[in-house]
Amino acid sequence: VLEDLVEVVGGPALPGWAAGRRFKLPLHIAAEIAKGEVPTVSRADMHALRSRAAFTETKPTSSRLPVNYQIVPVFIRDRVGKLIGQRQRARVDRWADFPQFPLDLSADLLADFSPRSVPRTGPVPVILSHDLDTHEGLANLVRIFLPIEESAGAHSTNYIVPCSWPIDHDLLGQVSERGNEIGIHGYNHANKTPYAEPAERRRRLEATRELVERYSMIGYRAPSLVRTQALMEDLADFFVYDSSIPTSGGLFPVPNNGCASARPFRIGRLAEIPISLPRDGSLLFLGYTPNEILSIWIECAEAIADSGGVVMLLTHCEDRFLGQPAMQRVYRIFLDHIAASERFFFSTPADVLSARGLT
Ligand SMILES: [Zn+2]
Fold this sequence. Notes:
The protein has 359 residues and is an alpha/beta fold. The chain has helices at 27-34, 43-51, 61-64, 74-89, 92-95, 106-113, 135-151, 169-177, 198-206, 209-214, 229-235, 280-285, 290-307, 325-340, 349-355; strands spanning 5-9, 22-26, 124-132, 156-160, 181-184, 219-220, 241-242, 265-267, 270-272, 311-315, 344-346. The site of zinc ion has 5 residues, from loops.
């Protein structure tokens, strides 16, 4: 049985970075804070809160379909999605009770109550990542987004679907040669791998090996962010890290999912880099305008910097996501904001993991 969570607002009893922010803490810890005490937080408390909604052990609808959900044309998925999204935007408390949307740092607050916690100072790393779901995404990355990133002095990490569409290695080779990272994005994007039988799941992971070696990949991102503990255990045999757990996943792939932490952590033998900013697809689906998305990204990045986390942004290069002209513009402004601020620097998963002792 899960312990009840209670809302706590940052004030004098909490670390400075928490001021004015809302958190959801386990009842017994919130009770100590309410009495004006410094709460005693164990490793088990920390782990329980971070793991509470970190996995999607129950299959989302897209994984339950007898066929690959991608056979439904994109324009129909988009139209149905927009209708649902606009209605859902107003119901945020229901689908983001915990973690709260668009950002929830409750597990990081708990970690800072631990006597061994060392406050982090200095600039905060920003990792730019793209999931390459289609050839269109890969082509747009090379044509549109690499130039935008290079002009801001940044590189990106790009997770590609290995076994669905024919990969254009001229393009992917360019991405790699220009100093960007490549990682694996599932198997065929049908959202089945995490729930497959163990032997089938391993077969799917083995199928990526040639590509993994060709581009010296060290990381994995699950399609639609569906992830199970069994998947994580298997990933450790193939990858150094995973980046499939959002800090605050909101509505997708299932309501109330995420690890409520923006700090990389260890899951068994695997390192995890949470996707700490809300992603382009979710925000567009909920009906946020490009300018609203820019504000959310900047506000969340600043809050993550205050708290000593790592900024990990996930965007999609396809025309219907970041490829829209207004979104391209917003992305450029966001990158310029990061580049101009002394609080941030552009980084990569490998550098972040080694800086945090997770390799
Ligand atoms: Zn994807």
